[in-house]
Amino acid sequence: MKNRHRHWARKAATALSLVAVTLPLVTTVTTAHASHKAKQPDLAKLIAPHKAGYGYFVDKYQQNTGDFTTPTTNPVIGLVDEFSTYWTHHQEPLNKPLLDLNIEKSAAITRNRTAVDAERSFLTDQRDNRYAVIQALGPYAPAFIRNANAQTETDSMPSEPLPVGFKKKHVEWASATSTLGPVVQLMNLTKQMPYSGTNTVKHYYEFVRPYRISPSVLPLPALKNSMATAAKDSYDFPSGHTTGGFESGLSLAYAFPERFQELATRSSEVGYDRVIAGRHSPLAVMGGRMVGSAITAATLYDHNNQSLMKDALAAAHSSALLGSKDTSVHDDYGDYETNRAAYRYRMTYGFDQTGDTHQEMRVPKGAETLLGSRLPYLSANQRRAVIFTTGMPSGYPVMDDAEGWGRIDLFSAANGYGAFLTNTKVTMDAKKGGFNTKDNWRNKITGAGKFTKAGTGALTLSGANRYTGGTVVQGGTLQLANKSAFGTGNVQLKKGTITLSAKTVAVKGRFETAKAGKLTMSRAGHLTVKKNAKFNGTLKLTKGDLKKGAKLITYKQHSGKFRHVSGLPKGWHVVYTKHALKLAK
């Protein structure tokens, strides 16, 4: 076997040029297939779960033990069984080009790690996963540490390698009886149960760790002794740390969805840190993401945990956490675009789509529970539709499992729908607080469905949208933060408020406001209506430079007038001309 490893290492070192860690994003948000454009598809059929050979993961997750050792009896083995097409159980490669590239990517990442990368990856290696994700809370992290009695045994990376045989001093990462005890208990669920590990699946595949395959994969110096003396049966696929990172991060994100995307980013970074340290390969951490996401969904879906989930939400939204924001703390995960780019890269690590690229997206049974607190105003089926329309394309290595866990893009799903495949109505009850009161959808929404905003909450559309079914506002506030946020259809304001926060907003169809509707826009803003406009209700103008003759709204032609216009100084008013509503004095 040693000779085989040396041969593989030589091949890996002389194959394609190494891929840089700063690969551009190669994934796209799933949209409806061309066949769906002519008429609205059967959404219920599209989002229905697909049973795998082992059944449904959320129903069978407790069978991830050493008593179940086949893809049809152990759901974790079954979940990542695509790996069987790359590597046999007898340590023979079946897809050498892919496995060689996997090692090349490992080597490139270790070779290009910075001092900051090294320090963070060491801490990730040595700390409890549950403690390691706390930093993604940013300004809320100090309150969490304080009110959960959280602690770690490792605060910095030593200047010299850890000695052979080094063992960490065990400390309890947090207290289950603390003020934030229910949150701690929720995060403990996946760590403490016997069926959350990856030991069984690792020993099923026996895939060798990358630093043992090729000398071009450089172990983190501080860890080189422990890595050199690790047990021979310490295998690579899938990554247990990455699995634990997603279990911890997504459990905490359920309790505190205000930092959902930041925690998802940190969860993915736990896997990336394992590659940086040389411990794991990209394929291994991609598999770990799948397993960790599925196990977390299974625990949240389990009816036995519903009471704890409710208590964790309440504890996290008390003054002990939500009310204890420390703005003096530097937020390592405070930049949205940086988080998005990092998360999307770590979905695929730049691998090409070498498999079947024409598979429809699949939504696993129970996957919607991962978004239960992040999109609380959506029904379970609506959250499934969100997952369906924001999922990854097919064809990437490892990710095309039977149920669909590999292609879920949780970062994008937290931004709301990726497409309105059918007519979609969203009702937000502001009295319930949190995201029920106010939310922001950032995706570029496509699809042929009509979007209806109802209820009392406020929703912002920030994407350059292309949905064609039109927009109806029946209550609350719909804010437009992008010129193309309305998509390409007609817009009806029946009741509630439309707020234009983008300076210029376009309506590609007709625009109509009813008596109970209010349009709010800047005095320096502009609404372009491609077709006819019908006015009623209230026009509220907010701060902005006043310019005589400035066009507030342009249209092909109009009927009616606003009943009330507010926000203008004395002596100013609006006039309706043939093709524009203008400021006048």
Entry keywords:
single chain, about 575 residues, alpha/beta, 12-stranded parallel β-sheet, 5-stranded mixed β-sheet, elongated, disordered N terminus
Give a structural overview.
Helix 9 (181-192) packs across helix 16 (306-316). Strand 16 (573-576) and strand 17 (580-584) form a beta hairpin. Strands 1, 2, 3, 4, 5, 6, 7, 9, 11, 12, 14 and 15 form a twelve-stranded parallel sheet that branches. The N and C termini lie far apart (88 Å). Helices cover 32% and strands 14% of the residues. The protein is α/β, with parallel strands linked by helices and 585 residues long. It has two domains: 2-412, Vanadium-containing Chloroperoxidase, domain 1 (Up-down Bundle), CATH 1.20.144.10; 423-584. It has helices at 2-13, 43-47, 57-60, 75-79, 96-111, 115-126, 129-132, 141-147, 181-192, 199-205, 210-213, 224-228, 240-255, 260-276, 282-301, 306-316, 336-348, 380-390, 410-413, and strands spanning 424-428, 438-441, 451-455, 458-461, 471-473, 477-480, 491-500, 504-507, 511-522, 526-529, 533-535, 538-542, 551-554, 558-560, 564-566, 573-576, 580-584. It contains 19 helices and 17 strands. The radius of gyration is 26 Å and the shape is elongated.
